[in-house]
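[audit] Reproducing an earlier prediction to check determinism. Same input, same settings, fresh worker. If the tokens differ from the archived copy the diff job will pick it up downstream; this log only records the rerun itself.
[audit] input (1410 residues):
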Amino acid sequence: MEPDPFPEEVSERKVYVVGSELVENYTVYIIEVTDGEHKWTVKHRYSDFHDLHEKLTAEKKVDRRLLPPKKMLGKNSKSLVERRQKELELYLQTLLQQFPQATPTPLACFLHFHLYEINGITAALAEELFHKGEQLLQAGEVFSLHPLQLYSVSQQLRLAKPTCCNGDAKTDLGHILDFTCRLRYLKISGTRGPVGTSNIQESSLPFDLSVFKSLLQIEISECSSRQIRGLSSLRSSLATLSIHYSTETMMSILVPEASEFSQWEPEGAESGCPVTAVIPVWRNLTTLDMSHNCISAIDGSVKLIPKVEFLDLSYNQLSTVENLQHLYNLVHVDLSYNSLRVLEAAHTRLGNIKTLSLAGNQLDQLTGLTKLYSLVNLDLSHNQLAQLEEIRNIGSLPCLEKLNLSSNPMCIIPDYRTKVLAQFGDRAAEVCLDGKVTTEKELDTVEVLKAIQKAKEVKDRMSSGDKKVQQPAVSLSEDTHCGAPTSISAITVCCVCSSSSSRPVENTCFSCSAPWCPLFPAHLLSLSSFNKDFITQLSHRLSSTLKEQQVKTKEEEEQQEEEREEEKPSESREVQSFVELTEVGCPSPGSRDGYFEMGLDDSVEESVCSSSSTSLAVPPAEDPSGQQGELCEEEVEEEEQLQVSRVLWCYCLQVKEEVEQKEACLVLTDRLLCLMYLSDDFTWTNQDADQQLSPPVEEVLSSLQLNLLVPYSQLLLSSETELPDSCLAFGLQAGSTRWYILSEAEELRQTKTELTVLIQAPASQNDPEPPNTPQLLPRSVINSWELEESQGAQGGYPAHLFPSSSSSNLDTHTLLSDILSKSEEPSLPSLLFLTHRHLWVLKIDFRELAERERSSADLHQSSSSSSWCRLVRVPLGSVVLHPRERASQLADKSINTSCPDPKHHCRRSHTVELLLGGQRLLLLFPLAQDGRSFLRELSQRRASLEGLKMVALPRPCTPCPHQGQHTQGHYRSRDQCCCTSTRKSHSSSSWDSSRLQVEENQPSPHLTPGLSPGLKLLAGLGGQQLLAYFHRYLAMSEAEEVRQVLWLSVVLYKSPESELTCCLLLSTDTIYFLLEDSASTLGHHTVLDIMDSGDPDVCLCCCLSIRLSELLSVNVGLFDQYFRVVGRSADHIVCCLSRDSYGTGVFLQELMSALSLQQQLPPPEPSDQDFYSQFTNTNTGKMQNYELVHSSRVKFIYPSEEEMGDLTFIVAERKTPASAASASSRSFNVLLYLLVFQVHIPTSLPSQGSALSGHSPSVSGSAPSPVLQPRTLILTSTDVFLLDEDYVSYPLPDFAKEPPSRERYQLREARRIRDLDRVLLGYQTYPQALTLVFDDLPGPDLLCHLTMDHFAAGGEEGLNRGGGASGGAEGEVQWCVFVPGADSRERLISLLARQWEALCSRELPVELTG
């Protein structure tokens, strides 16, 4: 038996005042309380001590003189604090000695006994349950306890003392026991570190659960299983058990008695051997959740849970699945995110399950799942499944309906979905793959695949006899032409567009008119090392080629043996010539076609022989590289075949005197490295296969030309340590040629590691060199402040960059001239990297790099290490997809169908078209999957980009009839009409798009002068056209719908001095702010200050987007005149000046509706999503302290009384003495708050502050246009004020470290209402503006103006007063004010008239002017 962990005696309590600290203008004393081994700290100021003393003297009659007296002067002096510290310590120690047993409640709370001390904790819990326990039990809610509370209760029960120590019946321990006996739902949550300010580690505290007699469900987290007592007492009642972060074995939870009895058996089991204990079973347990633990095996303890139906063992360390055959009722099993590599004969242990999750493991085969006939849902995501053949193992399961294979290697296979669905035969329509319902198009493709598969099986059966007799043919030409082929220049016309078509070249699209470069067919990626048929045939052909060369070499050795003995002096020279690659046009002596080196590593007896040039398909003379491959031989038995370990399809640059670029296949075998080039005629003749099935293996092998076949001992990996991950470089030890392999970074990294091991294996006597640390980018080109940004970079995509053929000016922007430098060879690829802020373009001069490697220069240590490469940084916000490219991403198959080139579709899959720095830029990716990965990564990075970014909008078609009535004549050249939308979700959406009326997309007249070309384009669109534009060119996800369009002015938090015209689009997922062009000049580093797209049919527009999921709060301005949207950073704080209470109200209503549609994000820890959530309700908004907390946890903060009081105080202190005296009898209130414009006619003086230029029809063309200056108008009962207000900076966001540079309110004008003479309405100064004419009376007002001018900063007030309020007739002052909203304008006139009538006892004169 284990010793009792609970102490039986009461520990001694001590208290010390260990220090003090000054907080603001008072001193806080730090108190350390010790209770046995537990200690904690409490902080109190002297006033807290005084309050405690008052309570104790009133209740317990403690001596009043015991507490040190107060001090009025010098209370923070060091000497006083030190003396008082000792006196207060003595005071507390005296109190503890006076009350050793029953501590008074005020003293217990003062020393935090209710948080850390056993008696205090139990008393606080008992009092809580006395008040709320019965309601909690009746409601059936989950009750949460901490291990410290359970420890305190368990220890109190073991102490020989009364259940109520302090005499208060509310704190009796019986309330806890009564509650625990009837509680049904319990949650115990521990902590990983110490509790609060104490040294208490909850994981080391034992507690007893035997006090719970009726528990049905329990969840335990962050508790050590070794400290849990009484679990066995729950066996008779518990139905659901959840344990997280608490145990390493299932045995310690299910059979805690196993620590005492070495041999045991479950109750009712028949045992053939004697046992020491019979353990009762968990009779009612049906759900067991032991996820997020450190369980490494499913032990025999599961015999005690025979009725379990749901078993969750995810996020553990399981490597095998055992003992589950004892769980006959098991239906749902979750084994995700473990360490399972193989699952053999799963039906013997999981016979009747319906749901099985194996996600996040390391499974590469599914042979063990073939007989799970009752399986309905299967999750295999995030595993290592690469072979489509493995799907056959589950394709015959009759009940399987949902299958998840996402994030497996097989997902990159072209047409992966249809090929997987084809394995299910007639049940393909019933299977939901990766959460997506099978479409009719996919079902049609599946039927075609099934027919092709049947035909292939018949063909294989017919040819199987021939294959057994005859080896696969290898084309070895013996009468090869020795003339070298014509070299292909880099300026040659594109191989796609140089077809026999009679159409002129200028009619082809931008993609097909780009210069030539090799493009890799995407469907060849399926022929990898996981394709057994391809590997088998490739191994046969390589072995056959090697054997034939060995035979020919031996024959030539015998014929030339005598000649070699006579010419021994020239042997070294000939060996040297054989080592290097032999030119086809100049064959070596003794051979018609050149030599293949036959080297036997570095042994003393080395024989080098020549043979005919070898190719797997075509004669070597047709190899456009202009070089012959080298064949190297090791001493192996002729019967032995080469074992292929890895196949990498890649893009190869071969550098000798010139740089040659090829599509290549790199093969690693057990002894040799093989490099084969793909013939040019194969690339595009099988374009149909690119979209359907993988090409026949025979056809691919026949199109591969052998370039290099060499043993690893002759290879030399590049010594350059700064090469990026996506580039592999190697050469021959005795040769000058260098090969640079470009492919996907992860695949290339694995290949490089394996190749390094193979090269070092023959030299086992030497210590192997450690591989270089992988790096994404060369360190020499990255600045020190970019290291953090580079750590999150992705990519290394090789791509050719070409400018638009229609644009000859490449110096539009310096960045573009750096990318398209004329001094560099345009045909060489660049490497593209994406960070969270930039697109990095790495330009590599492979010719210079090869030259430096030949001369063994240490580039890493050289001062000019970056001469062979340089990095161009482009702000990610300015990297814009061409609208055609974005439309093609939405599966718009009709885009660019006007291109006459027959190979357009294949070429198009390798291209990405960008708008950058005033130019159209074409990215041509040799590997099509790199293009797709680049687009996907770019889309994700731009969606998460904080700050401004550019969007591209095509100009609409002219004329453009209604949707559905377009004809060919209404399209722009090479583009589909952008006004039509191909998305089907409009009609099926829950929100009626017809609500978006044309009137909603009409900006106010005062915003029209500030419209940039992009905003003018949007303003001219109708409702349906705007929806089509949104879904094609703006939306970040396909599922979002537009809820509201709002034209207004906005102020950005980072640029509070500038007011920008904006088109606000609220969708179900994001808020989009489309801003005027001047936003790009505000100093934001995410975009370039250039708004020319380089395409006359495309407009660029600045955009700022805030996802609703990242929204924190919305501040609503006074009188609903504006609202401020607050996100997670300073870039995501935008103040929207609607200047219209109705528009603000509609937006807030739509925003709340959109937030309600948002899917709630899962909490950080999956353990929070459990069965307890059904008892809580968090879907209602609560209004507290002027804050409406939405169910999405977004706060809607409305103006408080304090904010209104601040504004009232500011305008009240500016009141004149006369008006203050007249208003003394009545309360001073703000009657109206409006955001208006003060109309100002510019003079020779420059206008102050931010302003919007307007126009007036009545003003002649030679007269200056009026300027609109934003103002805040305050109307009180006696005065009218005009203020400058900082709308965006207040209230301060949480991350603000210092106050803004300017105050929130700055008074510009102030006038009494009784001085108002008349109001002019008309169009003289500005359309629909109000002119308030005041009498400029001397007297008290003069004093007010002098005071305002005197205290103005730098004379700004006086200058603005003279320029803002224009003078009319002599003795008059005119305010010309424009109120945008008609309702607000009428309300202002009405209130002015009412107040004027009350003050002057007559009606306000209102005059209409022309």
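[audit] rerun output stored. Observation attached for the diff report: The mean pLDDT is 74.
[audit] end
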